[in-house]
Amino acid sequence: MDAKSNAVFWQEKWERGETGFHETQANPLLTRHIAALDLPAGARIFVPLCGMSQDMVWLAGQGFHVTGCELSDIAVRRFFSDLGITPDIVDAEPLRCFSAGTIRIFAGNIFDLTPDLLGPMDGIYDRAALIALPEDLRRAYAAHLLSLTGPVPELLVTLDYDQSCLKGPPFSVDEAFLRECYGQAYAFTLLESRAVEGGLKGRCPASENVWRLSPLPPSS
After folding, report:
1. 49 labelled as ligand-binding?
2. Is 37 assigned a ligand-binding role in the annotation?
3. pLDDT in tens, 161-195
4. CATH number of 3-18+26-34+41-215
5. Is 43:123 a contact under the CB 8 Å cutoff?
6. Predicted structure pTM score
7. Which residues participate in S-adenosyl-L-methionine binding (predicted)?
8. Is 101 helix (H, G, I), strand (E, B) or coil?
9. How many other C-beta atoms can be found within 10 angstroms of the C-beta atom of residue 12?
10. Domain locations along the chain
11. Is residue 180 part of an annotated ligand binding site?
């Protein structure tokens, strides 16, 4: 699937209301492990492909400044509507920036987001971005993410399962792939691995893995 087809796929899911992946509360893997990034209060956290995740609300409640990027304008508007908030909206062609309090979300394709628009970030939380993309786009996404933020501490949640059992998304991402994409910039620590209860989509065994990506020191 190319970038254009992938964008259409996700836009149509939001338009049809096929959002079974959305969680109505903060993900327990986030609440258990965000401290592993050792970020100070007020740190700026980037949440790529954020949807209308309640994780952003939880992070803001912990005193962080949260920036998301989400392809679907529907998801962004619903996120703020569900909170009963009317956000400020600013054109940032070809994106739009919705903001309220310590949360802002860029609506549009993440590949159109630039470092100047995003601004400096202190950390990244990726629960559903990397695993949402097919393999070729995952590589492009990983490179783009590094170009946006540089190597900053990241909390990354992945799934590992037999890809022949299920087409995806979500896709299986193993440690070897992580090292291929991020190994030049990060050291990896597996913080938790747990079996997906009932199997992934009830069809095949899978593990959900939580990684801390720690920036490597600059080479001399």
Report:
1. yes
2. no
3. 999 998 888 999 999 999 999 999 999 999 999 99
4. 3.40.50.150
5. yes
6. 0.91
7. 14, 49, 70, 127
8. coil
9. 11
10. 3-18+26-34+41-215
11. no
